[in-house]
Amino acid sequence: QVQLVESGGGVVQPGRSLRLSCAASGFTFSNYGIHWVRQTPGKGLEWVAVISYDARNTYYADSVKGRFTISRDNSKNMLYLQMNSLRPEDTAVYYCAKGLGPMIPLDYWGQGTLVTVSS
Amino acid sequence: QSALTQPASVSGSPGQSITISCTGTSSDVGGYNYVSWYQQYPGKVPKLLIYDVTNRPSGVSNRFSGSKSGNTASLTISGLQAEDEADYYCSSYTSSSTPVLFGGGTKLTVL
What we know:
The structure holds 2 protein chains of 2 kinds. By secondary structure, chain A is mostly beta strands. Helices cover 0% and strands 51% of the residues of chain A. In chain A, strands 2, 4, 5, 6, 9, 10 and 11 form a 7-stranded mixed beta sheet that branches. Chain A has a 4-stranded antiparallel beta sheet with strand order 1-3-8-7, with no helix packed on it. In chain A, β9 (92-99) and β10 (106-109) form a beta hairpin. Chain B has strands spanning 9-12, 18-23, 35-40, 47-50, 64-69, 72-77, 86-93, 100-102, 106-110. Chain B is built from no helices and 9 strands. In chain B, the strands form 2 sheets. In chain B, strands 1, 3, 4, 7, 8 and 9 form a 6-stranded mixed beta sheet that branches. In chain B, strands 2-6-5 form a 3-stranded antiparallel beta sheet, with no helix packed on it. In chain B, a hairpin with a 6-residue loop joins β7 and β8. By secondary structure, chain B is mostly beta strands. The A-B interface holds A 35, 37, 44-47, 50, 59-62, 65, 95, 100-101, 103-107, 109-112 and B 1, 3, 34, 36, 38, 40, 45-48, 51-52, 57, 89, 91-93, 97-105.
């Protein structure tokens, strides 16, 4: 069955960096675009970024553009999110999610990893 | 880019039907048939309910249906059940610099 397992979350000071990982299994990883979506505790979902199946195309939310970088390693079935210049408003649970089509919908989601940006 | 607009809350009694709206613009909801809906229970992961406006993934109850008119998409839940009490989010592809938007979410209460 499809599984997405995020890791790398934690507490980090404002201005510092953090890298999230997402390990995928149960499907042909290299055939699908993969997204990062975040959710502030008790609040709504915010789309963060997507990378195409072949890593040639990446897109970002305006709120993270220039600070976050999405990447993937199809040989390892791994997705990454490099987060630089972190801000308190980046505090959220970060989910990786598999795309069903070229962009949306997102048909499988991981359990999420919590990132807390605080001094 | 602003989030898609959903009512903060809706409620209904068991057996009734309810509709949750999701309003965008001609650059997102109105311009593309790429609207999807997700159900999320507290502390749980979102689950895909509807995609491409009207399509249900395998295993999703046919009590859930989607539609669109102009810049507003809708999720209808018929035969409301206690287990439907959850948060519901819409999402759309958009031609803006941020290609995917979510709505703010709607909390459904089953009375």
